[in-house]
Amino acid sequence: MGIALRDYQQEASDSFFRKLHEGIKRQLIVLPTGGGKTVVAADISKRFYQNVMNEKPIVFIAHREELLQQTSKKMNLVWNGVQVGKVKGQANHQNAEIIVASTQTLVRGRKIVDPGLVIYDEAHHCGSKGSKSILTSLGCFDPDGPPLLGITATPNRADKIGLGDIFQEVVYEKSLIEMIVSGYLCDIKAKRVVAESLDLGSLKIVAGDFNQMELGEVMSQESAIQTVVDAYIEHAEGRKTIVFAASVKQTYQIAESLRSHGILAAGIDGSLNDEERRRILSSFERNEYRVIVNCMMLTEGFDEPSVSCIIMARPTKSESLYIQSVGRGTRLHPDKTNCLILDIVGVTETNSLMTLSKLFPPIEKPESDSVTQTQLDLQDDESVISFQKRKEETHRVQGQMAYEVSLFTDKTIFSWVKASENSYYIGLGDKRACFLLKESTHEWWALFEHSDNKLYPLYHEPLDLEYAQGVAETFLKSLQRNLFLKEAFWRRTPMSEGQRKQLIKHSIPFDHTWSKGMASDALDLVFGKRIAENALRRFDPISYRMLLQNPDVREKTTLKIQLIQRELSRQTAQY
After folding, report:
1. Among 140, 329, 475, 563, fewest CB within 10 Å belongs to which?
2. What's the confidence (pLDDT) of residue 482?
3. Domain 181-394's class?
């Protein structure tokens, strides 16, 4: 079973084909980090290959190894069984339906087969001379050349080089605030931390941002280092944190100072080999480090959803760089409610310095409103969702945007229960349940337990949590049953006598106002844990991996799940 697209992802994919039909061949799609740009690209690839042209491969270009690896995996989530070849360094696998290729390898002159479609990841890099030469060699600017799709979170470049000479139109865009308010990204709030001795006013500006060398020297001052460390201890201690530093020197100064305060921290920079970098990042994922400090290493291609704090110890004027950095903390995770952004600023900070408030325009004051304009800016320590609610109240706008989202937020339509650090579950009744069971640091299996006490995998391998959940919820939606939805009608009816007795038996405090839903949630924390623990005891991820590598086993498993779906769907009318 694959993953269903979210509503806006489907809209983005549809927009590409609509515009392609209108003759717009070079298109740009803009989605914030965490919005699933690669999922959209995968759906477009699948539809293009199956419905438009299958004589030529689709070429997907990215400039980092991490992005190439993520692409191969996520393509199969949407396009099950697609052949993905890799062109990077010594690898040159071009006999495939999709070819993922490294920018650097292509710039160095590696020839590649004529593509039917070209997709450029992190398309804000397209303005460089090397990227333009790649696109030219692939025929993207020729009248009869392949269509070009760029995907990015940040269409603006700090050096002011536009992308208008490459892309004809932004065919779909979702803003960061839309995604947060809709529940697809986590809420964020920011606090400005002033370093009293930090003066950025005299720094030179190069290509739209501070001179890198000068900024590194200023931010490496002992007082600046101490400000960063104090800010973490005062505002973010305990949060899983990424610090963006201005230089390699500052990176290791901050990491060392944090360690001297007993904080598990490590530094990372471009001089580390791949093995050492992977070791450090894996340790961070396992919570062996609480803080990772880096210099221009993790702005792209690194996804760790549990990160709940970003420290900008590298002041910047670049909106693109700032958004990429903040984006490392906006993914949803069940163990965080928001992401805290700590902006380190100097005493001479000007309006041109990027901070979180700059990403969200101030609320325009109605003529009849007596509130001053300064009160309608995003305030220090105010979350984006609170800001949006204040905006709606100011304009007396009734209601909010509401979406069915498949993520662990208050807006989730499914009643997931966190049974342990390694498991989530939804009870479906009649001894049936859906599970998300953890295998390793960040990989989870989506499983369905039928009344025969067997666990059936809903996908043939473990996935990142948000994708495993997406697969599980695609299965749940296919059942068309409302019993396990948070908004199900029965949840609002009065608590039953049986529930009351069970609450008393398990010493769970309650009162007479409780509904069936409230009682069910409280009891699920008891019974759900037992059910999930039992599933974990029977779960052998190594065996699943080995078995599902066999195509025959995978086919039989898929057929069984399809039979179960039909069986449960037929029962819908009984409820």
Report:
1. 563
2. 56
3. alpha beta
